[in-house]
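Reviewer 2 asked us to include a model.

Predict the structure of this chain.
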Amino acid sequence: DHIIAVYRSAGVARATVVWSEPMRRDLRILHYISHAGIMSLKITHEFHDDPHADRLASVIRGLGRVDGGSSIFLQDVDRPFITPSVLRQMLACGLEDGYAAPDVCGRAGHPLLLSPTVVSAMLRESSAGLSLTLRDALQPFPCTLVSVGKEEEGLLEININTPPEYRRYFGPVQSRKLTPPTASIARGMSRV
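Predicted model (structure tokens):
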């Protein structure tokens, strides 16, 4: 809900969410999907049913469902602490070709904003049977690094992969209450 609310606040009108197939049987996910209309953001839900496919396969599945003429954000749900201002800055960079990313300690962070050129190339490569990583797929394209504030830089670096990390920021799974980290947490995670 938090990620969707941030995108909506930044003016993004549509989203495609790709779930792993086991999530189809999770009642909380099904409840969320059935009530997603309250977010006033047009959301398409896709289930990726190949448990042996790599992460890029889920990305390709999502890219196949979007409007080919638009730039799209690629949001890793393990990095939920984005802000509307970062998204707006990325949209304002005038991306015509290549992709944009927030500048996190001098390197490309997440989310990524992919131009239609990148989206088309990734879909072509996947349909040709090429097995690439996201880094390989993006390598031929220029990256525009978008400057972000020091506090936002620290927030964008937070990567949540384990239940203890999840609980550190969100509390018990049952509560589902989002508590974004403060600047002091961000200082512990970056050079702020």
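Confidence is low (pLDDT under 50) at residues 175-192. The beta strands are 14-20, 42-48, 72-74, 99-104, 107-108, 112-114, 143-146. We have added this to the supplementary material.
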